[in-house]
Amino acid sequence: MPLRNRFSWNTVLSSYTKQGRLDAACRVFDAMPERDSVSWTAMIVGFNQMGRYGDAINMFLEMVSDGVPVTQFTFTNILSACASVKGLDIGRKVHSFVVRLAVGSYVSVGNCLVNMYAKCGDPGTAKIVFERMRLKNVSSWNHMISIHMQCGRADLALAQFNQMTEHDIVSWNSMIAGYNQHGLHTEAVSIFSSMRKVSFLKPDKFTLASILSACASLEKLELGKQIHALIVRAGLDTSEAVVNALISMYAKSGGLEIAEKVLEQCGTSDLNLIAFTALLDGYIKVGDVNPARQIFDSLRDCDVVAWTAMIVGYMQNGLNNGALELFRS
């Protein structure tokens, strides 16, 4: 290295962390004659990216112990680590640093605090942090929508949604998925319809998988077909989540033949348990479990739920010998 100063050391360090080469990054970090906030934060970011959240937290504690100034970027990353390990105690300590250093006014830090408390099972404090935030962005509101949905308060989530001056795709997806999780499938369809009418946003694979799930629960075959057409036009018919949702929707809504065609086009390699059991239920209704057995045999990973579903399918159709043979195998 022709000129070794803090900037050049940090450049090399950041390069290694971005590449996921943490062993090399640690060697560079240990060899640095002088470290600053950028150096420490680069290591924290690197550990986070590789899922080594405990190491990220320990690095932060060493950073504080050494009296290195902590930046807002450091806080957002360490709060993310706390959220990932559901470390409420250390998260509260980080919050105290945020208050002491008066960096809570940064929207990014406030959002990370809200997210951390929500992920760590303390929605009450998350709400207090949100309400005290002077500046909020769309992500701030989206966090609160998710929190209300997690707490089973779809009414509060809708009230929060309606207070927003703008929505992004995450806002709409949170409402649709939240309604689905609580069995409010009609409401999920309604808000999807509103999105199509009032928003210029295009549904993504998460939107489409969620609304197909609502259609399946409501057995709305015609709406499901319309959404399928939308999926094809958007080029999302190769998404694993969307394909599984399509198969489930058709199987549950009386479109078993179309579900079979989707399966033929995409194969069974990415078929998940929900789609498999939906197909199985469809075959059971028409009294034919042989196609279900063929799909079962082609699944890469069959867990106890898949085995149980197949055995129950045999028994419900009076094929006790088939159920016993599968059980013994």
**Largest β-sheet summary:** none
Count of DSSP helices? 20
Number of strand elements: 0
Estimate the helix proportion, in percent. over 70%
Order of helical and strand elements = HHHHHHHHHHHHHHHHHHHH
What does this structure look like?
The protein is mostly helical and 329 residues long. It has 20 helices and no strands. Helix 3 packs antiparallel against helix 4, helix 10 runs antiparallel to helix 11 and helix 11 (169-181) packs parallel to helix 13 (205-218). The longest helix is centred in the middle third of the chain and has 14 residues, at 185-198.
In short:
It is built from 20 helices and no strands.
Question: Any descriptors?
Answer:
329 residues, globular
Describe the secondary-structure layout.
Layout: H1 6-18, H2 22-31, H3 37-49, H4 53-65, H5 72-84, H6 88-100, H7 107-119, H8 123-132, H9 138-150, H10 154-163, H11 169-181, H12 185-198, H13 205-218, H14 221-234, H15 240-252, H16 256-266, H17 273-285, H18 290-298, H19 304-316, H20 320-328
